[in-house]
Amino acid sequence: MLRTMLIAVAMVAGAAQPLLAADTASDPKAEFKAFREYFTSRFPKVALDDFVNGPYSMDEGLRKQWKAIDEFPPYEFAVDKGKEMFATPFKNGKTYGDCFPNKGIGIRQTYPRFDEKSGQVITLDVALNQCREANGEKPFDYTKDDMAALTAYMAFTSRGKAMDINIPDDPRALAAYTKGKEYFYTRRGQLNFSCASCHVQNPGNRIRTEVLAPALGIMNALPIYRSAWGGMGTTSRRLRTCNSQVRGVPLKAESEEYRNVEYYLSYMANGLPISGPGARP
Amino acid sequence: MRTRILIGLAVAASVAGFGAAALAASADDFKAAYEKAQAADKEAAALKNQWTTTEDELKKAKAAADAGKFDEAVKHAQEAEALAHASVAQAKAEEKLWPDAVIR
Q1: Does this chain's domain A28-74+167-280 share its CATH topology with A76-156?
Q2: CA angle A226, A56, A219 (to 5 degrees)
Q3: What kind of fold does domain A28-74+167-280 have according to CATH?
Q4: Cβ–Cβ below 8 Å for B86 and A24
Q5: Which residues, other chains included, contact A130 with Cβ-Cβ below 8 Å and sequence gap of 6+?
Q6: By 3-state DSSP, what share of chain B in percent is helix, strand and coil, each rounded to 5?
Q7: For the CA atoms of chain A, what is the radius of gyration?
Q8: pLDDT digits (tens), chain A, 281 positions
Q9: Is the pTM of this model over 0.80?
């Protein structure tokens, strides 16, 4: 009960802060510029393209370990598995490549995209399951190894390509972007953290043993192999884990909120190279 | 004098026992506390801001009730309710506060 009261007191104190800029209207181009300037000003020694390497761009010691680990990349098995899955025909004879432009090679940087037909943000993971279902196959679990392998392979074929996310001239697309921004900056869970608490306010700092990654380019490395997991993790797995770590109940994988926040962060990373699949401590 | 002391002790023990019996929670007390906690948690769910600690306390409350430990069950249910109310308050406060954190 004391713990609950302390949290309530902390929240009331937070709520008492003045509302200095309570407007929620979005101007993606201006916000993109401000977002980039924030990180490049705060970390002037980090090369712009290096932000996609997350904690390794922040910590020299970790970077050395990563370089050593990357001689035998722990995600390699997932890339190989994904490549094989990608080439294996469905029961109807078609393949994943038939569902995507350029047969699905080198296109990861264009996801997530806003689908004007459904009015929804479609992530690469969702597009892959849509492809499976359109071809009579059951969808994969968004948090498990099969989805991680497919997206790892597609990211691998797109390495170095600049993130290229569009917000079409459609109020629903702007609304999705704004909702993603809201999710990113909203505090949640008993620990009262937002995504931004770690990845805007504290990149480079440690939370327990982990060095926090900057939000700029954070989506470019996904999916990732995490040593802490002893395996691969999809974007959904990463987001759900973030929620749990702040003692919030995770949302459903690929829920609208998760897709929107991926849309927002990927737009903020426009122009930065795809570095996935990544490896993280 | 000795008799009076013994009588006094017996009365005190009786009062203490009666008091303990009066304070012991029943299955109905648990049910009422649990329903209140669930209602608050449902409100948090509608705001998509449930806390894992609320869920943990609800589970502990249910487990204690299943074991017939209603005092403990009520305590966990009340803790769950308090946590759920805090998560609702957080979600409502954040609806107004989040723009303050946006990089501009």
Answers
A1: yes
A2: 60
A3: Cytochrome Bc1 Complex; Chain D, domain 2 (1.10.760)
A4: no
A5: A99, A122
A6: 85, 0, 15
A7: 19
A8: 445 544 544 444 444 333 334 456 789 999 999 999 999 999 999 999 999 999 999 999 999 999 999 899 999 999 999 999 999 999 999 999 999 999 999 999 999 999 999 999 999 999 999 999 999 999 999 999 999 999 999 999 999 999 999 999 999 999 999 999 999 999 999 999 999 999 999 999 999 889 999 999 999 999 999 998 999 999 999 999 999 999 999 999 999 999 999 999 999 999 999 999 999 98
A9: yes
| CA distance linking residue A154 with residue A129, whole number of Å | 14
Distance of alpha carbon A221 from alpha carbon A212, whole angstroms? 14
Q: Give B14→chain A minimum CA distance, Å.
A: 32
- Residue to mutate among A247, A261, A265, with most B CBs inside 10 A, is A247
Q: Cβ distance A225 to A74 under 8 Å?
A: yes
A242 is catalytic: yes
Tell whether domain A76-156 is in CATH 1.10.8.60: no
CA–centroid distance for B81 within its chain: 6
Among the partner residues B82, B96, B97, nearest to A4 by beta-carbon distance = B82
**Domain range list for chain A:** 28-74+167-280, 76-156
